[in-house]
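Why predict the complex rather than its parts? Because the way molecules touch one another can change local conformation, and only a joint prediction can capture that. The input here totals 398 residues.
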Amino acid sequence: MSADVIERIPSDARLEMSRAGVQVIADRIGVRLLHIKGDMTDPRVIDRGFGGTDIDVLIDPAGISALHDELARWGWELYSSFRNNSSFAHAQTYFHPDWGHLDLHRRFPGIGLSDDHAFEILWADHAEARAAGVRCAVPSLTAQAVLLTLNAARAGGRGRTASLIWDALDDPARAACRALVDRLDAQVAFAAAHGELERFAHRPEYLLWKVASQGGTRTEDWLGRVRAARTLREKAVLVLRAPLVNTERLAHKLGHTPGAAEIAREFLERTARGARELIRAAGSRIRRSDEPRQVTIEDADPAPVKADDE
Amino acid sequence: MTQYRPAAEVGVIDRGDVVYVARLPQGPMIVLAGTAAVVWRAACTAGEGSVAQRAALDVDQDASAISTAVDEFLTDLVGRGLLAPIAD
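Output of the joint prediction:
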């Protein structure tokens, strides 16, 4: 009779244990986490037998620095930073050779409220779950329905998650969802998930969510991010960073840290790609000069990209 | 009779045929299969008799035949920081 270390542990068991380990790390330093998505989704919200390949947590923004340091101490390596992870700069990814990937969310795309206020609202009604016997906090049922719907808005028109969730709710639950969406200032993304984005064509976030939910070129994605930026400083940073190469992503693509020549080549390709997209978009606008002026995503690029593909 | 519980900061996943346990956050994950899983459950479940006696009921063995192996196994688990004895 012995306790053996085995090499092949089922991925769902490994992920559950990984989640528990991250919670233990956070508990030790007093950082609040809300476990979101994947196997922490309450089946009353949606039951699809999530497989999942990573774990996702939403962190109290005040605890990011402390948890980052503690994760590093336990062997978690930064895989992709907030700045380079997605159009929404919402999550930072870590990798551990034994435990896999962790997505640390400082915000949830679609929520307009400030990160700290949004976290407090979600934390106030949190529920409790367990991973490998370790107590974990999860969003309330209403919040889970809202967050998964917002997540579905970025699916580029694929999947029926939003409608499945909505159809399963009774009237009081729907009213609670709408109220929470309003409190979180998440109306635009929530509408995008339900195919009602045009109601919010006047909002600064409109283009960003049009690209996120329906696809678009990288240039349109960038333009959407600039328009959605809330301050002049944020807009300026986006404009200045536009031509810069995402070296983390390039490193993952190449399988090694890129050298100066590889970064330069990517810079030129990126710039040329942006120029081609602008020329196509300008051409389509000239052809359509009689029509009302609006962004024509389909014309701009025959192969739309997901908003998360920078 | 000594009772046990998972030690503090130990993750436990019981999948019926196997039990996965790990000291967190460092790991590693350890799989307890077959009789080892039965003994883990017997150790962590309150009941009459010794751990070996409770485990024996599930593996159709005489308790006296497995008690030495069970005790050694429990000592091993405690030594690994996975199990903690509960004071009588």
